[in-house]
Amino acid sequence: MSKKNFQSARPIDEVMTVWDVLTTDERQFVRNNHTIHHFKKNEMIHCEGEIPTHMMILESGKVKVYKEGVGSRAQIIRMLKPGEHFGYRAIIANQPYNTNVAAFEASTIYMIRSDIFLSILRHNNAFCYRFLEELASDLGASDARTVNLTQKHIRGRLAEALLMLKKNYGLEEDGATISIYLSREDLANLSNMTTSNAIRTLSNFVNEQIIAMDGRKLKIIDDDRLLRISKMG
């Protein structure tokens, strides 16, 4: 189970990107009515089918959003980075969660009760519009990702996944190693392919000197070629 700790995370207003549109009273209300939870690597944050109780903000760590498909095969839908909100779509739609969310590594999450979130949403037009923009952006990204995962070939899908991880999490000090270490299975689930296909395609990229691998570390050697492969599909 997650643990609450109010001492080891940044103040919520340093992480909540919509903070600037809240009134002074609303800010104080959120400060007084949020909890901080710590999740271990691979710990579930919420499960598909559960009734939503909180809007969540990732303070630190990395989180994956996924669905169980045919034969219990997981499909990673999104990889979240610090500062991103999640869990709010189900609250707004008054529906159970339609995805699973798990900590990819040790993560700290702010939780704001759904009734508090909805109250501010209903009374602050600017706050409401921010989430409308976010929902619209997520829908557009989801549409594009659906097309890419269903129409691109294996090489294009894997190249796109690597570039997305680079964009989300950046590079380490060497300027080449992606700052997230994924198993071959996670890469496969992110790219909509079997683990064996992911392993084979990664090996091909290594042989073509597009990337280099050291265990779970992935280093991009030729960013331009990776981008071309992604675009060509």
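[next item in queue]
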Amino acid sequence: MAHYTGRPRFEWDEDGRIMTLLNRFAFVDDAQWVWSVPTMAQVDGASIPKFAWSILGSPFVGRYRKASVVHDWYCDIRTRGWKATHRMFYEAMRTSKVSGAKARIMYAAVYYAGPRWDVAADYDAQLAEVVAAETYSLEQPKLAVEQIERADVTLWQRRKTDPAAFLAMCDDFAKSCSSIEDVETMIEDHMGATE
């Protein structure tokens, strides 16, 4: 059964935009994969497209905050595939008791316009190397993540997003789709191929 380990504590940076995790925190999905976020990891909610914030709210407000933190971290280190990372986000939201309708809309937003990468070529090798040994362990010690310089990697994102078309379909994502596979199919059928 999917669950979180630990209770995350955060500190906001001076600009009020970046949140620093003060303790280790993890999400364990139904397949028992551990999605661990180290102490001092910094997240900014950027893995959720900004145009979706107008209907969904900020990534750090509401029941999906924990899911957003884990999703942001894995979008940064890219040690697992983009689709698995986005699907974990959906499962983590449902574990956080986000309604099925809202979770499908948020999943649609990251599937449609969120970051994508080739896990073999595009992951942040330096960051991943430092955290790899502990990232998948529930007994992870504190890491000095703030000292790591992140590589400047270009992630694949949809060149043209159509926020109006996406927002118009939100009701369909919420009501007509009963699974995330339905969401993926609707996006590809109505909003264009994903790659």
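[queue empty]
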